[in-house]
Records
---
Amino acid sequence: MSTTIWMNHWFSTAVNIIDLLRADSLDIHVIGTNENEYSVIKNSCDEWYQEPALKDDDYVDYCLEFCKAHKVQVFIPRRGMVKISEQKHRFEEVGVKVMIEDYSIMKLLNNKEEAYRYYNENRIGPVPDYYLVTTSAQFMDAYNKLLTKYSQVCFKFARDEGGKSFRLIDNQRKGYAALFKKQNTRITLEDVMRALDERDSFAPIMIMPFLPDEEISVDCLNTEQGLIALPRVKGYEKYETLRYDKEIIDLCKTFQEKAGLNWPYNIQFKYLNGIPYFLEVNTRMSGGVHMSCFASGVNIPQIAVKKILGETIEWENSYETKIIAQVLNPVTID
């Protein structure tokens, strides 16, 4: 019997997650929704609906009614994850299995400052030096302190998704040399202070050193066989490398032992002077999970769906280093 799965407001690379769910002829019926009528995942879904522009409790109410109306059996949320986790019991009461962690750990991990404190207190692994600031005076003080130890400084809001607010302070972004730099995440200190001075206080910002060395994105899922941890080394080239460094795998295992997550998640590390620092844990599948799955042969989305349905899929991983790239193809959207 077909299993009805709903994915709400996922990013465009979720087309690959849907392909992984359908692998091996798994009998599923996929419903997709998005505020954007022309989201690219529309073509990959069996049913498609445009979402209303709702927030917080109103959005959770919409999700619950949607599940009832469309007989959703498995809900894989991306939008509104923390609020949905807070009210997960309402979905479970009507027979909907929600692929999301409990509210306490969701709330913690989706606040960068609380998460960093948690990593420190539980000795999970190193985090960068950081300051939490809410005024422009605090920001300048923290910036000056960091510059005594580090050559570059960056910042982002403590509550952020996908690094949208991330900025690297670059006081050389003007002039001829700046023409050779990508500018979308760079900002001068002068421009930062001008923006911050518009407010007496603002939502908490984390300011920290910029870590310029390798970035590792690890796609994870805990199973009866043990932890799946697929580390992708990301860079500025058009490829990534699946590479199983023992130090990274051990850090992932330590995190899992402490946090006890049940569903797919992604850990971001960044190196500085040979030390891998925790940047964040995303409590959902990453945009590049399909690359990890393709290179390793381990189908995280399908294993997770089987798990939430009470079934087990055995998995094998050769742990071979692989170079991964993806080719983009044009599509028309129905």
Note: Residues 131-209 form one domain.
---
Amino acid sequence: MKIKRVTVYCSSSAAIPDKYFIATRILAQELLAHNVEAVFGGGAVGLMGALADVMVSGGGKIKGIMPTFMKDVEWAHPDVVDFEFVTDMSERKNRLLLDTDALVALPGGTGTYEELFEAMSLKRLGKFHHPIIVLNTDGFYDPLQAQLQKCIDEKFMHPRHADIWTIVQEPTEVLPAIRNAALWDENAISFATLRT
């Protein structure tokens, strides 16, 4: 599988531990090395800023998608040339899902979780078919992994739904995980809901 473009969900917090910045910069270097374009939320700080800084300084392709009200408070990364400003957060989420070969979720807060869960729900319903990779830096997503498994074990989700996402531990594993992700059933809506 030729990977041309990857959407990256990540934090805008600048106060988080440095280990998350290190992993983000390594991922950006991997994208650069394989000539993969990054699409992200457009922020100038936090993991968004770190991703963009490396992509821009390395001459890579990166696109920001951001609601206009965020631009108005100067959250937009000033060095990202390819920018799309949209009306609201819902349109931003929709645009982040378009024309991408995969989604990658880095550690983040409620915004990252919201984007990730919406993508997972759309994939469960057969409306999104691409790989979803979760980068579990230093066990950040261990509780999420346990919760999703509990959903499967207690039959809130089908066992096949475990193939909606792939969890990796290191940023160097992201691109191989995209290439090796299981093909998603285009008729996924047929097993979206469990019946007794």
Note: The CA atoms of residues 163 and 182 lie 7 Å apart.
---
Amino acid sequence: MDSIQLHWEERGHGEPLVLLHGNGEDGSYFRHQMACFSGKYRVMAVDTRGHGRSPRGSAPFTIGTFAEDLRDFLDQRGLDRVHLLGFSDGGNIALTFALRYPARLRSLILNGANLFPGGVKRRVQLPIILGYHAASLLARLDPKAVPKRELLALMVEQPDIPPAALAALQVPTLVIAGTRDMIAESHTRLIHRSIPGSRLALVEGDHFIAAKQSGLFNKAVERFLDRLPQEV
């Protein structure tokens, strides 16, 4: 797999808190979290491969590739263990990373994540599926449509995580979503039930609670982080 240099924005000092944005976004999505948590943590908002100011590279455009990119990012900076907060596709990357490299995590915060495409509400997923098929047809004629097809493929074909696989996770975990999230509440609760000892927080709002309800979101995350046992 090609190794690329991911773009990131950093603020604050303390234990590292890495933020992973959603599909088609970049690290600026977390401006309210950067402002809130940088007083206590070294907050690092990373642009995923092919998003924001990070290069696309030539590796497959998959959740698994993004998880390996994150490992490289941490290795390049000598970060052995971090708090990891992922939103939407960023949550799926964070969960994939946690399953592969649990020893690298101090804690895991999953915001609006899903284990498989069926976790997305059907009324939301159907237009995405139609858009993906349209972009796939167009990409055969116009290379400029390829990035759009790749982004939509992430939501149509991925992730594919069996709920039973989460039983192996021993990382302190917060599962957090909006009360009107595009992820079905039953699916969010499935993730919570499947991760031993995880906490669940439902915040009034839609999928984008970190941006639209940042006060409530940050308070829930802060409560979770403050309750973590101190490192020896």
Note: The two ends are 36 Å apart (CA to CA).
---
Amino acid sequence: MPPIAAPAVPSPSRAALLAIEQVAGFLRIARILIEDGRRVDLAGLEGEIGRLCALVLDLGPAQGKSVKPRLSALLGEIETIEARLAAAAAPPA
């Protein structure tokens, strides 16, 4: 019987990119729901961001620079959601 191959482990930069895409997808859905006037539970977001930060901290300088534009875009999405939530929570004028 041939040996069982271990599952492929993504490189640190690939793992970080996958985590960024996962968080970005979650944020896109959250923004759409917020813009539709629906409530969104963001309770799990902090843990996902923490995991993403840990992955990024493990990157070397060159790898870190390569994910910087995607992290910047992610921050922009978070800021957009923050602004939409603040606007939704503001009392009507």
Note: The two ends are 73 Å apart (CA to CA).
